[in-house]
Amino acid sequence: MSTTAKSKIFYDYDRSNLSDETLIYLYKSMLKPRMIEEKMLILLRQGKISKWFSGIGQEAISVGITAVLDKEEYILPMHRNLGVFTTREIPLYRLFSQWQGKASGFTKGRDRSFHFGTQEYNIVGMISHLGPQFGVADGIALGNLLKKNNQVCAVFTGEGGTSEGDIHEALNVASVWDLPVLFCIENNGYGLSTPTKEQYNCEHLVDRGMGYGMESHRIEGNNILEVYTKIKALVEDMRENPRPVLLEFITFRMRGHEEASGTKYVPEDLIDTWSEKDPLNNFEAYLIAEGLISDTLISDWKADIKIEIDANLDLAFNESLIESTERKELDDVYQEFVYQETKPNKETEELRLVDAISQGLKQSMERDDTTVIMGQDIAEYGGVFKITEGFLEAFGHDRVRNTPICESAIVSAAMGLSINGYKAIMEMQFADFAASGFNPIVNYLAKSHYRWNQKADVVIRMPCGGGVEAGPFHSQTNEAWFTHTPGLKVVYPAFPYDAKGLIASAIEDPNPVLFFEHKALYRRIRQEVPTDYFTIPLGKAAILQEGSDVTIVTYGAGVHWALETLEQQNISADLIDLRTLSPLDTEAIYTSVRKTGKLIILQEDSMFGGMASDISALVSEHCFESLDAPIKRVASLETPIPFAKFLEDQYLSKNKFEAALKDLIAY
Ligand SMILES: Cc1ncc(C[n+]2csc(CCOP(=O)(O)OP(=O)(O)O)c2C)c(N)n1
Ligand SMILES: [Mg+2]
158 CB less than 6 Å from ligand 1? Predict the structure, then answer.
């Protein structure tokens, strides 16, 4: 394929002052992924590898960019960027093993194709959802800025991906924060079957740069010398003058979206036209015309690459199939964390829940200067609940960052910060708004460690809960959206003391933690709290009262509702405040139920699919013989949370608890 178009050279190559060695290096760097792909297409037809997304015809972009960046500089490729991986010199057998789901790959068989990253090579692979890559690049670049290491990072997307909201959010953040990112759009004409005219309605995607207040350039993506020289000049300048740059590379997808889907919808003359613009063939013809390489040399290089491919394929094919155990799979969902207790000091002061969280956060940030907190209105304004008041003065703008209104990009940026060695804390203005950042929470943060061993050292603070007459979008207690997702930890304190100790542990823990803070308790619940930094382990419930007749399990505002009820009734109950929902302290629940024989679970969220249902199922599976009565679940009405006080009171499970408890006692 690479030797057919020698006679005609489509591009007017300008080598400027590039050395012969550089030119030959660029040629060989494009030749290798081309030859790997040609081999993969054969193997695919033989059923020896699974799906394949071809980058044939687009190699100049991957190769040109990777050749410019230093090896320490992060690259975030997409599904057509084999040239990034080969130019970073990843041993081929590791790539081949990755595609076969074998242990020498990068995901222990847990994810396929290019869905992996590797810190060894400073490559951060995609998640299927495409768009979050841009936000992750923002976070990595922010880490670089904070380290003042003069590094640039590059992130890729296709033109189809640019329609995703994540992309707009991330470009805007990068512009507002001056983040040194090369945002690379490979415009190859199609997003699956969708042509560009159905994808966007501006003349050139790169014109959007102006809307973001961002420098932007359009580059002939199949002309390796144009790609290389323009990127080189830009990157050298960006290292000194950090800023984002939006790049649109004009290229073409020569094969189907993936091999099985074909190219029926692509007009044939388009394919013919672009065949003449093949980046490898043209460059090869140019180098021959310049007298830099010869047919003999090309044959020798091809023979060498073929030997390398075959030898590495042998290694990968001979590698045994992946083995694991259920235990090992479960253990790898989270990064191992050995909890080390910091004991509370003796001196205490009375704090409201809101103050305790603020103090815990502040003390964590004082202890660890790799912590960065981001959120809307959290800097000068101190956050809508004033939890970060004074943080800006204490830690400065670098570490206390007001964000634009873009939850998804900031969750992704938090992931990027973690990749680059920071601990990221994000304040969701209201827990309800996590819906706008849901994808990177459940797909990026939650799955990265399991997929490629990459921790997501992120705490997302979630001001939540009803009883504040704030209506359906400022009152939800949406913990069940997250307790369902393996890879996340979910913490939900009910008291100032617990909140302070748990926020410290959540920040120490390298895993992603959603930290729920009940708004109705913020200023209502007070407690004596130790003045210094201390920790409380995640995953341990608190037994608030001990009794013999019934076990009450609850968390958040429910704890206070249960306490109020118990104050008024003469009932001997174990009252368990879960404090952490994931991991769940099942032993505390089982031990109590085995003693009392009766269980009632109270949650503020509506019933179906919530914590109460799962706890009920667990207890019936594990403690059935100890039960003297059916388990009772008490939850709010199966409606959105209404605004007007009467309606909200009627909605909340608080009003049903006492009757349900009495019923259970009387059973
Ligand atoms: C959120 C989401 N929507 C849809 C898809 C399915 N999908 C994967 S790649 C792709 C096309 C992407 O087109 P483009 O960004 O132009 O990249 P190209 O494949 O052309 O390189 C689509 C629709 C997906 N993976 N994720
Ligand atoms: Mg495309």
Answer: yes
